[in-house]
Amino acid sequence: MAFCRLLFDRSTSSGAGAERSVLYCNRARPLPDSGVAEDPALATRVRGIILQRRFNSGFRVAECEDPTIKGPNFGTHRLEMGNWDCYHRPMHAVETRALTKTFGDLTAVDDLSLTVPQGSVYGFIGPNGSGKTTTMRMLVNIFYPDRGSIAVFGEDSRAVPSGTIGYLPEERGLYRRMNVKPLLEFHAELRGGRNAGPEIDRWLERFGLAQFANKRVDTLSKGMSQKVQFIAAVVPEPKLLILDEPFTGLDPVSTDVLRESILELRRRGASIILSTHDMGVAESMCDYILMIYRGRKVLDGTLDAIQEQYGNDTLRVAAANDDCAGLPGVEKVRDLGQIRELRMTRGCDPQDVLRALIARTRVTSFSVAKPSLHDIFVRIAGPEAAESSPPKAIAAQGGSHE
Amino acid sequence: MNKTLIVAKRDYLAAIRSKPFLVGLIVVPLMGGSGFIGIGLMKAKPDIRERRVAIVDRTGVTAESIISSAQEKNAKDLFDKKTGRQLTPRYVFETIAPDDSAPDTQRLTLSDRVRGHQLFAFIEVGHDALHPPAPDDSGAIPQSGRVDYYSNAGGVDETREWLDGPINDGLRRARLTKLGVDPARFTDALALVRVQSMSLLSRDEQTGAIQTARKKSELEGFIVPFALVMLLFMIVLTSSTSMLSAVAEDKMQRVYEMLLASASPFDLIMGKVVAAVALSLTSSVLYIAAGLFVLSSLALTGMMPPSLIAWFVIYLVADMMVLAALSAAMGSACASPNDAQHLAIVLIMPALIPIFVMMPVMQDPNSTFSTVMSLIPPFTPILMLLRQASPTGIPAWQPFAGLFGIILWTLAVTWAAARIFRIAILIQGKTASIPQLFRWAVRG
Prior knowledge:
The complex is a heterodimer of chains A (402) and B (444).
Chain A: E1 4-9, H1 10-13, E2 20-25, E3 34-39, E4 44-56, E5 59-65, H2 67-70, E6 86-90, E7 94-103, E8 106-116, E9 121-125, H3 132-139, E10 147-152, E11 155-156, E12 165-168, H4 180-190, H5 197-206, H6 222-234, E13 240-244, H7 252-267, E14 271-275, H8 279-285, E15 288-293, E16 296-301, H9 303-310, E17 314-319, E18 330-335, E19 340-344, H10 350-360, E20 363-369, H11 373-381, H12 383-387
Parallel strand pairs in A: 1-5, 9-14, 9-15, 12-13, 13-14
Antiparallel strand pairs in A: 1-2, 2-6, 3-4, 4-5, 7-8, 7-10, 10-11, 15-16, 17-19, 17-20, 18-19
Helix pairs in contact in A: 4-6
Chain B: H1 3-16, H2 19-44, E1 51-57, H3 63-77, E2 91-96, H4 103-115, E3 121-125, E4 147-151, H5 158-178, H6 186-189, E5 202-203, E6 210-211, H7 218-252, H8 256-262, H9 265-297, H10 306-332, H11 337-356, H12 358-363, H13 368-375, H14 380-389, H15 397-424, H16 434-443
Parallel strand pairs in B: 1-2, 1-3
Antiparallel strand pairs in B: 3-4, 5-6
């Protein structure tokens, strides 16, 4: 089935904000040159003229603007589109459909669909080699997908100006013989940023690198180079920032500075995608979490929604005796040092576990909780899961942002 | 600014400030001109030690004539007429009576004297040298009809060349003596006439007047084409091999992934190509300016017409684009700078083919071989330039046909190189094989 997508400015139809929105039309027939479409969701008539049309992996993509706002010249070829089956959705920062990428016999990313809402922090987690970096490289057009489509702010990702997206790759690398500031100006210019000097100075000041502006990159420490590369990714300020393991190799102070910088960019309206192996970072920073395992999506949603799927199946216990093995209804014990995390079998009553525990030892702390993200990660990608059948995608109920 | 130009500007400025470029500026003319420097040094300090040559004259009447002719040549060539400085070695002769009973023994004895530095060389005038028999079916002349020259010198032996005149002159004098000609008339009878090489005449298209022919010098026919071609070859080769290493090094330092998020592989590779072209033009401007200065100081500016310089620039740009694009593609396929050194050989070998065929093309610029070779796009820049620079000239359509071929070739190579670059640049840890590069270029 071919989809037709009309982009229009929401302010032209509802008057609420300037956010661009999308009309999806599911009639598999050629899109007319221009037309007027009904928008049932907003109960308004959206009049639009198609400015450009693109064909990408079976999707018919078109863009339109409202003639009443943009000018009178669009009205000459209007077609009634009331008979089109249209519906309205807010436009997302990133939207992929059935993204697939193979390298020889290896399917690195398999049928991956995801939606990154505007202004959110979206975390990629997953074991090494699961397909996170390949997905990010496809989002920034370093790799092209074998199948599927990518829309960035409603447009085909290949048509998005490079200044829209800032990208910090996992493999850090800069021209080592260049001085820091000219290097940053070069990257900014390449991303369409002119006169980026003041913005670069502000970032250098913020990261404590102002005195290194005229030093060669090969005189910087690894951490400093990493901060310089982050600045290269955010100047000029992007609408979408994609960061592949941004905190790896940074000391706690630098980590805090970087974290605060990312969140400030989010506050200013940027959408952030980051990958991390630190579940603490994912839990504390990300509005949405997507886990990829063996190239497939296995988790997608808010942290609460993901945890909700597993229910309150975790007990956190502090007791005088370390031995929690063999308790009735407990299938796994994880020793965290001062406390132990017990995973209960389905249908197990925590009161029964508590009674059995008190019979064995003196209990100083006992709480029922949802599983941590770390625990969920291990349940999906740990050794036990690796021996089982390929993972199924788990849609996060309740927290869906679709 | 266009992304290609942004990348080109960075690469150009980075390269022009680097030591390898500055060193290359000096090394290229030294490499290209090392042969001339050697010749110049030899001319400045020639070997003028006396050279003793023995003559075994089996005709019995020729040795004296040869010695007489050689002494006349000695007297004429030995000293610079203005400075009085000795320019060539003095040749002295000794006549050896032939031993017909054991000729090889006699030759061995004389050979030993040459090895012992008592003689520089010896010549043996065959019994029938005055009236040499016709060559046999294989084209060989029997030893009795020849003059054999024996020496311990290398392949290029100026003594043999020097003796060529006196020996033939001596033989002719002996023949004339036998015919009863008065020895006083020998000089007149044997006087040589110089054959002057001239250019073809043409008609001035504007005035209709016939343009007179001009004298062509050996220098003009060799020095200008050779110098231009070697300059082009050296600039292109040094620039492209250094680019190959630079791309491989940058790949090792992982600089490309971030750039690829901001610019397409084609932008990156074209930026590198444009920078390489600009660099080569920078250095060639310096060299050409220096060359024109030298020629003007020698009042020889006409040897390098402006049209030739224009074609030089066109060919330089085309050749540079092709080799720079290939270098970038091959550099992107390397796992380490060491691998780049090995791949550089693959890059250089095809570039050497036009150099191998330079001599036959210079000798006959309009032969079928020369024409066909110069119209093969990879060879066009060097061979067509060589033919255009030769005094004989070539049909006017051929440079344009060659240029058309080069443009197509350059587009094809750059397109294929961008495809290779895009795939190879993020692959770490393994250098691609040549067949793999071809597969990437074809399949993408």
